[in-house]
């Protein structure tokens, strides 16, 4: 068995690097007379950055003795900061890890710490980890989480999360953390298997990310005692303060469902927080259209606009993240020995880079995107190959308990009072048919959902947190037609109304992810959002609504593979039935 090299440079490489300092070898590139951020000194410095292949050989006031063949670029009027790091990525919100990375890199975000949940659910169990490892060949930098739970109620969760699989993921040097820990209530209540996995992560010097929205000070302290090291779920400045008081690392969130960053900064300033550069920031896997305004560059701009010192704002997206995840020996700062991952700015107050370098390769140069060679092999992501049909008899909605939408993602139970045996529900109210059906066609659960739409014929979606099929709408025939079209395109989201096909977003990668560039996906998702709003969808993020209808880390009622599930009581109210 081949032992993976855990450090990117062999001994021969290191000797080449030192020979450049000695003058017997020349660097490839020198960025000369530039202004660069020295994170150790917390100040802007004037100097020269020597680069050889993928590494910074030197950053300081000196020029190399040997410049034979060296490209020297004068950058007196430029400002250079480390490449931005997105520390909490869900790379399957219709986009995929590669398409998100390609898009984000053009605005300076070149390092990603990513959720592995969909890889576990969509790949053969033994192939998920090898699939992830191919991203090490990318000019961008991809790190990963090791999930310890599914954040839903799977029929066979024990098949996905085993001692062997968890340890194999945690042993990989590209895996930086365990979590996010949506099953923290089980940990608190005595699940010792889960606790043992948390301890396995800590023993390997990995971080453990919590999921603690609204948690009390006592709960936060308890989670810290059990091994949780950080959390990104603060909704108020007081939430941030409580976590900091208990020693947790805090990542401030600004996402499509929680655009909280400006508010959090203002509330922390009101509490006289003296420094922000130990805090981190994340966009928390937002829906595609959220990224029209950028990725981590968007968050840095918000922080600067809210009066955070620009150096601290840059650190919140670079150095603070690298230090927390023990990556600062490799990246997150501009210093000798680090990866040559840099953003070149025209103004330190504007974090959108003119040029982007990652691992010594230009990703964007003088405003022009540069072609990249790396493309992942998607063959291990199982296509959604539906070999079964839905019939009118499958659409039987006699459940006395329905799901009422409170907002994009929070749902509560309600008593169904209308006749749901009809072929089409009235269009003067907001109740729709809701069906979750197994992607293999083996089981189903049927109920009603209130608050999703007034005038929607049928939506079929293979995009969900489990990869099973969601059907929502007023008309059983429109639902069947939408399902048929979704099946024809190999998975995706399809919208029909009154016998007309309105829109579709094909998701050929497992029925969950698109293979298209994010720029195109933004347009497709924007149209979906517009059509749903016109049909009466009252909220602002239908992608997250579809994703979280099956997710049991949020209150109060969910449709899952086991049936309609009461999150608070941890009880299946109505089980799924076989088709």
UniProtKB/TrEMBL annotation:
One of its GO terms (molecular function) is adenine deaminase activity. Its EC number is 3.5.4.2. It is an enzyme of class 3 (hydrolase). Residues 409-570 form the Adenine deaminase C-terminal domain. Residues 79-363 form the Amidohydrolase-related domain. It catalyses: adenine + H2O + H(+) = hypoxanthine + NH4(+). Belongs to the metallo-dependent hydrolases superfamily. Adenine deaminase family. It comes from Jeotgalibacillus salarius. This is adenine deaminase. Keywords: Hydrolase. InterPro entries: Adenine_deam_C, Amidohydro-rel, Metal-dep_hydrolase_composite, Metal_Hydrolase.
